[in-house]
Amino acid sequence: METNRQQKVNRLIQKELGEIFLMETKKMQGVLVSVTHVRVTPDLGMAHSYLSIFPSEKGSEMVRNINDNVKSIRFNLGKRIGKQLRIVPELVFYLDDSLDYIENIDKLLK
User: Fold this and answer.
1) Is the pTM of this model over 0.85?
2) Which residues constitute the domain of residue 20?
3) Burial annotation 57-80 (CB, 10 A radius, 16+ → b, else e)
């Protein structure tokens, strides 16, 4: 079970990562990246972030590129939340394919 502190840090990181990705994806036409969920470990040292990417065909490639450039993303995150957190957590990004799964179930039910 997550503590109140973990939940607040989850929401803070999700909000700030969403804004970072919004600014970065404005440079690329036709790609939308949203942060669907963030889970922070109890020691606040690691943040597992789940990304939903549209179009979904580019999803795995985009997550691979994001994980390759995680240091610059962590640096930008640190500039934004450095005053609120003592340590900026390490970031790991995963592809959230739950929307594709829901769409597939809808197609099957119809």
Assistant:
1) yes
2) 4-109
3) eebeebbeebeeeeeebeebbeeb
Q: Where are the alpha helices (DSSP H) in the chain?
A: 4-25, 59-68, 70-81, 98-109
CATH code: domain of residue 32: 3.30.300.20
Q: Which two tokens stand for residue 29?
A: 């036409």
Q: For residue 34, report the phi and psi dihedrals to the nearest 5 degrees.
A: -130, 145
Cα(29)–Cα(17) distance, rounded to whole angstroms?
Answer: 19
pLDDT in tens, 55-105: 888 888 989 999 999 999 999 999 999 899 999 999 999 998 877 788 788
Q: Are 30 and 55 in contact (CB under 8 A)?
A: yes
Query: Looking at the 3D structure of the chain, how many domains does it have?
Result: 1
